[in-house]
Design goal:
mainly alpha
């Protein structure tokens, strides 16, 4: 008979905590599986674990689930790999957040440039683009504003977005 009903035994986590930990490790295993091959192979973890994740990425739904559980089981035994993967995942999420913020900035500037009530030249000047880039962006904005059909306006709007995105990436030194 269990005299410690509802409590935890000496040194052991509660059932709920154990389940949360198991779920977190399983999510980490899924993240490893979903990671692009190049990034997965660049991780400083056991190559067998990487091979296992690559195999899981090519399996059908049921087989992929079994492989994910198998990877999670391996991870429970490899504390160093869990720490490395947690750090890599956090860095990826932080990078993704900055990419989303930059994307919103590009969209905002594009929307301001396409709004005919705004002075496109002043906006481009305020953005700090060099002369050649500013000329390319203004040319794309002009093409958008002169477009007759909705289809052409959408196409030129995408062009403005690409011009602005590339110009901002160049400013930040993101593009090579």
């Amino acid at each position: 008979m269990n005299t410690n009903a509802g409590g935890s035994s000496e040194g052991r986590a509660s059932k709920s905590a154990a389940k949360r930990e198991a779920k977190a490790i399983e999510e980490l295993a899924q993240w490893l599986i979903d990671l692009p091959i190049e990034r997965r192979r660049a991780l400083p973890i056991d190559p067998a674990l990487i091979d296992h994740a690559e195999f899981a990425a090519t399996r059908s739904k049921g087989a992929a689930r079994r492989e994910r559980l198998s990877i999670a089981k391996r991870l429970r035994k490899d504390v160093d790999a869990v720490a490395i993967l947690d750090t890599a995942r956090a860095a990826t999420q932080q990078h993704s957040a900055s990419e989303r913020a930059q994307f919103r900035q590009v969209e905002q500037l594009r929307d301001q440039l396409l709004d005919e009530r705004n002075d496109a030249r002043a906006l481009v000047h305020d953005a700090g683009f060099d002369e050649a880039t500013a000329a390319a962006v203004l040319s794309a904005v002009d093409a958008y504003r002169r477009a007759g059909s909705e289809r052409d306006r959408k196409r030129f709007g995408r062009d403005v977005f690409r011009q602005v995105r590339d110009a901002m990436a160049d400013q930040l030194g993101v593009r090579g």
